Amino acid sequence: MSRVQLAALALAGFLATAPAAQAQVRPYIGFVYPAGGQQGTTFQIRVGGQGLDGVDEAVVSGTGVRAKVAEYLRRLNNQEMALLREQLKELKQGSAGKEAAGLKLIERIEQRFAEYVPTPACSSISNLVLVEVTLAPDAAPGERELILATPRGVSNPLVFHVGQLPEVSRKPMLTATRQVLGKEELALRKRPDDEVEQQVTVPCIMNGQIASGEVNRYRFEARKGQRLVISVQARNLVPFIADAVPGWFQPVMSLCDARGKEVAYSDDYRFKPDPVILCEVPKDGQYLLNITDALYRGREDFVYRITIGELPFVTSIFPLGGRVGAPASIQMKGWNLQKAELTPPAADAGPGIHLVAARNEGFLSNTLPFALDTLPECFEKEPNNDAAHAQKVKLPIIVNGRIDRPDDWDVFAVAGREGDTIVAEVLARRLDSPLDSLLKLTDAAGKLLALSDDHQDAEAGVNTHDADSYLMVKLPADGTYYVHLGDVARSGGEEYAYRLRLSAPRPDFALFAVPSSVGLRSRGTGVVSLQAVRKDGFAGPIRVELKAPPDGFSATPVSLSSTAAVTRLAVRASLADTKEPVSLAIEGHAKIGGEDVAHEAVPAEDRMQAFLWRHLVPAEDLKALVFDPSYQPPAKRVPRAPPPSAAATKPPVAAVDPATGKPKFTKQQVAGRLRQLKILFEDGLLTDDFYEQKVAECEAAL
């Protein structure tokens, strides 16, 4: 029996059980670095995650972007590292290490040593995928999603940006080491001095990763009077980190002049953790921008993108929404907007929240949410600060207003009948307003009937403070009632805008499909969890089905009873496999007011924050991949066949370690050893001679 046959035989037992185990592992990615690039460029990114064995596809949503997997750097174990040490020693001592191929292999092995950490700070992001990304010159700027696919599944998505400015990226951070209490300094990254501070030219985008205790610095020239916008994307890139408090990277920025005097500082932007500095440059000269974590934490997934320049930035819009089908006239305020135009939602846009942005001389601003609804609308009119001066409104109505000064109250008078139910709902924080609303309902005598501060909304996405208020009250008698709206912290200003819905209940629902991808075995079944969000007291059943399924996919509809919030939809495949991920759509139907109401389920990821809280993070698509569990990819590298005379001329390999006198391996260890050798060999990290030698040692142990 040849050595190659022996290796195959020893691996058979492992491979027989591998598909069943691997089929249950969904690929996961925890960071992308850099998390974007400039239009018209090609560059390499690193994606950290787990369950990525065999990764063969990278996909960025939208058009104008191509991505392909260049290399997979699997996390190596101690035994594999020991094999590589032996291989490296042999190469350096032998003649093969002096040849071009040998020198290249030495370089590759030493690179794997440089990447190796025996105790990574976070094992779930310690496997790396190198992806080559090409952005077309006309690729639409803005936020996209990046996913990875393996032969057995599709990963969660992460944010990836197409930028318009030149980009600067620091050297990728190596895997962070787990900190030991009392020895934290041993886990700190030792940065060369020339990597601590970088010289950049404004405008640009700066990409980096923060390590524990680290401060990154950028030096640039600026002129007096320049209106610089310096904005960070960090929490936006990785919304939730399961094992870190408060549950995300919390960047802090400071801007200093040439003498080190602080000119500006920011550790957030209103209620958002990602800071923004809006600064008019006081004088010509050099300036230093510093960024770190508020708690001096850090590791590979503490990724950031800083945009700096005289760029358009919208600080507020008004109103925050409009009526479906009616032309929207939106006022905006901000920086560098002199020639800017804000594009409203498309004329055929339906109800819901849409993103709008301003464009100034070709550059796109930050995006802001804009709500569309079908109800009549009006504007708040001052003075309306108390019941005596209340603004009279007729239900149903959406009032667009502002808490335009500290301690301001807006009061609205509505007529009601005994037994009627009235709903008062504020949309403000969900539309990026800093307003932390407080709602009160009083009767004509001033008696408090209901009060609401925060109302939990599963549709809020990454927003962790449900600051919008909601009331649903059955009126006790005929008469006039007063809805009082203010800010909990008694703050106010022109950016404290809101939309106040006053109406009878509008029963409705929303659906989330979790997770945002599903893997199905050949002609098998995959399960998607459906979570229902019921609105305005809706308690009817919801029928869930696969909407316009692609060929080869089907599902038996299921129902959510009036008391159920979660169900599972079994998606079946009649296909043997799919060559690439396929997009699915799931739709829910319910009878409301005698009409069939349908809503498509929003794909989402169920993410943990700081060991405890869970959030639904929306995704763009629901992806499905069908795979053959018995499929084994062809060997990337085949061992050479030994010449017929080799067995007669080669001396036998000893099964005993001469140093200890003990067997080198037990029979139980051989299968694992052969598997490690095979993987390292196929990864191109072992020479033919070394591989054959180590396989022969395993043969001697049998």
What does this structure look like?
The chain has 702 residues and is mostly beta strands. The protein folds into five domains: 3-23 and 633-701, no CATH class; 183-311, Sandwich (Jelly Rolls), CATH 2.60.120.380; 313-373, Immunoglobulin-like; 377-506, Jelly Rolls (Sandwich); 509-627, Immunoglobulin-like, CATH 2.60.40. It is built from seven helices and 48 strands. Strand 31 and strand 32 form a beta hairpin. The two termini are 12 Å apart.
Poorly predicted spans: 1-23
CATH architecture of the largest domain: Sandwich
By CATH reckoning, the class of the largest domain would read Mainly Beta
The CATH topology of the largest domain? Jelly Rolls
> Strand order of the main beta sheet, please?
40-42-38-36-46-47
Count of helical stretches: 7
Shape: globular
Based on helices, strands and strand pairing, what is the structural class? mainly beta
Average residue-wise pLDDT: 92
Helix fraction? 10-25%
Separation, N- and C-terminal Cα atoms: 12 Å
Care to give the gist of this entry?
The protein is 13% helix and 41% strand.
Give the topology:
Layout: H1 3-22, E1 28-33, E2 36-38, E3 42-50, E4 57-60, E5 65-73, H2 78-93, H3 100-115, E6 127-135, E7 142-150, E8 153-154, E9 158-163, E10 167-169, H4 193-196, E11 197-199, E12 204-209, E13 216-222, E14 227-233, E15 251-257, E16 262-266, E17 276-280, E18 285-293, E19 303-309, E20 313-318, E21 321-323, E22 331-335, E23 341-343, E24 352-360, E25 363-373, E26 377-379, E27 391-392, E28 397-402, E29 410-416, E30 421-427, E31 437-442, E32 448-452, E33 470-474, E34 479-487, E35 497-503, E36 508-514, E37 517-521, E38 525-535, E39 542-546, E40 553-555, E41 558-560, E42 566-573, E43 582-584, E44 586-592, E45 595-600, E46 602-609, E47 613-618, E48 622-627, H5 646-649, H6 667-682, H7 688-701
Parallel strand pairs: 2-9, 10-12, 11-13, 21-25, 26-28, 27-29, 36-46, 37-48
Antiparallel strand pairs: 1-3, 3-6, 4-7, 5-6, 7-8, 7-9, 12-19, 13-18, 14-17, 14-19, 15-16, 15-18, 20-22, 23-24, 24-25, 28-35, 29-34, 30-33, 30-35, 31-32, 31-34, 36-38, 38-42, 39-41, 39-44, 40-42, 43-48, 44-45, 46-47
